[in-house]
Amino acid sequence: MSSEHIQTQVDGSILRITIHRPEKKNALTGAMYTALTEALKWLDADDALRVGFITGTEDCFTSGNDLADFLSTPPSSQDSPVMRFLAQLPQQKKPLVAAVNGAAVGVGTTLLLHCDLVYAAPLAKFQMPFTNLGLCPEAGSSLLLPMTMGYQRAAELLMLGEPFTAAQAHAYGLVNQVFEGDYQAQAFARARSLAAQPPQSIRLTKALLKRTQHTLLSETMAEEGANFIRMLGEPAAREAMSAFMQKRKPDFSNLT
After folding, report:
1. H helix or E strand, kind and range, residue 226
2. Fewer CB within 10 Å, N or C, the chain?
3. Domain extents for the chain?
4. What is this structure's pTM?
5. Over 70: is that where the pLDDT of 172 sits?
6. CA nearest 243: which of 119, 209, 235?
7. Does domain 1-181+198-256 sit in CATH 3.90.226.10?
């Protein structure tokens, strides 16, 4: 089931999912979102699999959307590849473990909110630059971030869109632990420990932990998605993305 840029490997009862497009800092295209969604569905459907493990290349998780691909085929409905991937994340019944290093930008950070265990290397750098691009939060982050770290921290990260470190992510509760050395191997060891637990107990515990947020999360993600799609066609996003492509600073001074 592996594709060129989304590699999958079964290791015992663990499905390893690797974002592998190092020449583009693992930037995600529509085809990659589709492959990620298929991998997650496979994880839940295969009785032999107990845990999903998602990572990037050794020095980069993902720099977020491939902007050229994103601009050529922007999401226009909830049925677009990125929206289908985001919708799949909160539906996962089996646990997901993430190992992060280098850039984790945009969806590279927000998808971690749907993982059950998240581990990072010291040089991991997180960022959610949605407002910088004239857009709004996605993946339920406007709900899950305040629940995880409190309103003020979430507001600072989402409104200013500035990068933050692995140490900050750990202090804020986004990351379970920061691993020195081979962070992927150490995170995978945690996935093995999880896979050794009674599978029904793990699935039920995950369901119970997420029970109270289920309905509200669905409503939040639907509202975020509708606004995100609408804002893609508005002046702020057009200016931000044009500036990015032209390698200049965007000018929002005339916007209201």
Report:
1. helix 214-232
2. C
3. 1-181+198-256
4. 0.95
5. yes
6. 235
7. yes
